[in-house]
Backbone:
């Protein structure tokens, strides 16, 4: 027995020394063996501070390893105890062994057989619930392992030290895998100084897999994934090829929700902590071809750089899934996409550095809640962008639509530089005129766009404009000169004048501001000045009866919310000058009706039925709208003892006054009456 | 008991949406059609956000916005909608702060308005909701 042990130790030392073992100390007794090994190094395996004790009499083996490295990961304080061990040179065997990692017991029973002479070994770990790991080491340094029904959650929990990055993701599922790892340095290689070569093949499958980050922003459920990796190395320089097939399940990778289907094929190299993906191709629904490459720092667990190219992607498919959640999450469900795009992107340190996108008939639209909305396209052209460089954007835009207004095709060119964009002069056709943007320059600051430029509206026929907008037909033209257009967070300001020449007079809008242009609070403010409007044309256009004469209007502090007036201070008055002033019976009735409490003297009520038209001296009306109430007043300086206010002051023969008594008129009621008057749906009130 | 909890929740929500007392520098309960539209929009959205606040999926951030804190309890397929909901709420909140400053005639007060509202939202958050204090999430 003594000789046997001695021979066994000698054999062990001989065998281990071939793998780079440096024995530190050993003691031999008749009944027990104690073996200390300072270090062992295999390519895929290394250990430090091994102490093995074998009690021959009781067949008990006790093994402690201060540090065990498997691949890139290291376990500390490994303790293995075997109640049925046997040593029969050159074989050490164990059945029913139990292992502790950092003093925590693993729920597996371990059998192994180690041939000290041939340096071969077999290791079988059987879990309490059917999991099994069967590994064989042969003398050439080949490792073959088969993992079946291994619960991933348990694996990660037990090997937190080896898998620190995974623990926070709460992974679960069942793992099946086959690993074949060859390449311990041969004696010949070492003797001749030849390069050390390794080869690895892994086939793995995850079933019913899931994971979730602590904040739930990266998670997956019911995953079924097949994975295969083949790799070879010369002196720790690995070349690898991998395939992954995502067969079932879904994932949320903020801000994207992705379902099973993508397949990945990739190749690259690994050296030290640097994992290089030379080329990865991804089969993704809606994308003709998707390829990626990059470098991943395994130590820092982050991509240092990368590139992505997308060819012939269908925007109708990738837009809602990949673009809308990224660029407009609040409106993602309302955005619509069309057309195709190809793109190349380059990243550094997690930030986009370069982008080239080629659009082919791309379309973007956001339907409004009651129809209309905004649409843009088809758009074709090239969008190049560099974080530190100047590029030129060139797009051909087939048209655009804003509510009922359709814009014609136009070219859009711009100079891009980092967060700045400077547009060339753009002429956007609108009906028979055009909107011209001139010198518009924008800059993105802290996530918001700011900038300025100029704009002109070249004359647009009011006849066509009103027809397009569904308004009663009006003659005249609309034009605008906005020398100072400025964009700030939540506001677009138009400093200049928008002029509509209509009804032989003009209407000029100034101080126009669009506030919160993209939200529910979107509203327009401005001042409007109208001069010398021909009331005959105006009343004819709106079927309001007939008034001859001219009027001026000033609307200060106009605020339109969803194109409905919410606030203003409006005054309407007869234009100065000498001209015929007549008002028809129906116009009188309509104006009286608008006032709600309008009244005429009894004698006037009798007159209304006798004549078709009446002479008047002047017309004056003021409405200050706020909080849904119009505070009404009439011709300034014309007071009445009964508290009424004069809207139409009679003059000539026959003549009559139209008087209002209700100084607080509900705005919606007033609008209803106006619409009724225009549509002649309601009988006019004459008191 | 459950109904009392809901009554309490509704009251808290209404209280949070009621006009806030004016600070020294301006009138925070100032009204305008845009502010009314924003409050209505936020009130309508609150029916969807309230269960997310209660579940801890979404919390009240220290900068006057809301933020996804832990979406683990939200079904996977709905997490993108929650993200959209949070983005829409924050767009309304930022617009609200701007509109209140604008309605006061001092657009430059936006940051002050936002700061004041951030404090009030957090003060008025229900017990059990998550709020940010000093950059960390704490449960009220």
Residues:
């Amino acid at each position: 027995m003594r000789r046997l042990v001695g021979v066994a130790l000698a054999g062990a030392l001989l065998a281990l020394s071939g793998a780079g073992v440096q024995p530190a100390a050993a003691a031999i007794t008749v009944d027990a063996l104690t073996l200390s090994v300072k270090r062992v190094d295999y390519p895929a395996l290394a250990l430090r501070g091994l102490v093995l004790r074998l009690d021959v009499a009781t067949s008990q083996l006790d093994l402690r390893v201060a540090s065990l490295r498997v691949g890139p990961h290291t376990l500390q304080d490994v303790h293995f105890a075997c109640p049925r061990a046997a040593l029969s040179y050159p074989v050490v065997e164990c059945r029913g062994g139990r292992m502790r990692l950092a003093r925590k017991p693993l729920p597996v029973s371990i059998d192994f057989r180690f041939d000290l002479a041939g340096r071969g070994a077999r290791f079988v770990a059987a879990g309490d619930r059917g999991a099994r790991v069967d590994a064989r080491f042969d003398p050439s340094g080949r490792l073959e392992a088969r993992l079946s029904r291994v619960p991933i959650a348990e694996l990660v929990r037990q090997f937190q030290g080896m898998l620190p990055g995974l623990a926070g993701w709460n992974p679960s599922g069942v793992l099946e895998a086959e690993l074949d790892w060859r390449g311990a340095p041969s004696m010949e290689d070492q003797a001749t100084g030849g390069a050390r070569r390794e080869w690895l093949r892994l086939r793995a499958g995850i079933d019913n897999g899931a994971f979730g980050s602590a904040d739930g922003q990266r998670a997956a459920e019911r995953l079924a994934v097949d994975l295969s990796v083949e790799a070879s190395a010369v002196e720790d320089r690995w070349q690898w090829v991998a395939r992954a097939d995502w067969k079932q399940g879904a994932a949320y990778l903020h801000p994207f929700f992705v379902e099973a289907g993508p397949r990945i094929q990739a190749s690259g190299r690994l050296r030290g902590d640097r994992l290089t993906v030379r080329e990865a191709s991804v089969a993704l629904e809606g994308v003709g071809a998707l390829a990626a490459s990059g470098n991943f720092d395994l130590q820092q667990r982050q991509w240092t750089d990368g590139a992505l190219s997308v060819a012939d992607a269908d925007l109708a498919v990738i837009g809602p899934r990949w673009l809308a959640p990224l660029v407009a999450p609040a409106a993602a469900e309302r955005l619509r996409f069309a057309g195709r795009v190809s793109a190349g992107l380059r990243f550094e340190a997690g930030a986009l550095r370069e982008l080239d996108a080629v659009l082919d008939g791309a379309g973007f639209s956001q339907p409004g809640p009651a129809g209309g909305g905004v649409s843009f396209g088809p758009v074709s052209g090239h969008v190049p962008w560099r974080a530190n460089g100047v590029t030129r954007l060139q797009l051909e835009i087939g048209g655009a639509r804003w509510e009922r207004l359709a814009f014609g095709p136009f070219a859009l060119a711009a100079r891009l530089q980092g967060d700045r964009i400077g547009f060339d002069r753009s002429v956007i056709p609108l009906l028979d005129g055009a909107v011209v943007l001139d010198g518009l320059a924008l800059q993105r600051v802290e996530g918001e766009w700011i900038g300025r430029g100029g704009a002109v509206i070249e004359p647009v026929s009011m006849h066509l404009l009103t027809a397009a907008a569904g308004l009663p037909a009006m003659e005249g033209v609309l034009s605008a000169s906005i020398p100072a257009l400025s964009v700030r967070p939540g506001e677009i300001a138009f400093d200049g004048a928008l002029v509509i020449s209509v009804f032989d007079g003009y209407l000029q809008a100034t101080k126009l501001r669009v506030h919160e242009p993209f939200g529910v609070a979107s509203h327009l403010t401005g001042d409007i000045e109208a001069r010398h409007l021909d009331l005959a044309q105006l009343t004819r256009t709106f079927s309001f009866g007939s008034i001859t004469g001219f009027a001026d209007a000033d609307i200060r502090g106009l605020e339109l919310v969803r194109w409905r007036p919410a606030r203003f201070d409006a005054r309407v008055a007869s234009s100065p000058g000498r001209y015929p002033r007549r008002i028809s019976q129906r116009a009188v009735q309509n104006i009286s009706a608008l006032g709600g409490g309008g009244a005429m003297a009894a004698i006037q009520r009798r007159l209304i039925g006798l004549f078709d038209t009446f002479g008047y001296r002047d017309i004056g009306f003021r409405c200050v709208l706020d909080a849904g109430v119009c505070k009404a007043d009439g011709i300034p300086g014309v007071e009445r003892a009964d508290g009424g206010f004069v809207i139409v002051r009679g003059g000539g023969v026959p003549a009559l006054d139209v008087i209002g008594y209700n100084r607080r008129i509900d705005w919606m009621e007033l609008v209803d009456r106006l619409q009724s008057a225009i549509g002649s749906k309601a009988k006019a009130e004459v008191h | 008991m459950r109904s009392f909890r809901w009554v309490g929740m509704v009251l808290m929500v209404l209280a949070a949406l009621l006009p806030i007392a004016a600070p020294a520098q301006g009138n925070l309960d100032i009204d305008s059609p845009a502010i009314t539209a924003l409050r209505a929009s936020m009130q309508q959205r609150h029916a969807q956000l309230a269960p997310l606040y209660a579940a801890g999926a979404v919390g009240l951030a220290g900068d006057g916005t809301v933020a996804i804190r832990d979406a683990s309890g939200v079904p996977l397929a709905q997490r993108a909608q929650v993200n959209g909901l949070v983005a829409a709420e924050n767009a309304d909140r930022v617009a609200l702060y701007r509109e209140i400053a604008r309605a006061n005639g001092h657009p430059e007060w936006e940051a002050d308005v936002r700061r004041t509202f951030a404090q009030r939202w957090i003060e008025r958050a229900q017990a059990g909701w998550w709020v940010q204090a000093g950059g960390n999430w704490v449960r009220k």
Notes: The CA atoms of residues 24 and 112 of chain B lie 11 Å apart. The radius of gyration of chain B is 15 Å. Helices of chain B lie at 2-17, 33-55, 79-103, 110-123. Chain B touches chain A at residues 31-35, 37-38, 40-41, 57, 68-74, 76-77, 79-81, 83-84, 86-88, 90-92, 94-96, 98-99, 102 (CB under 8 Å).
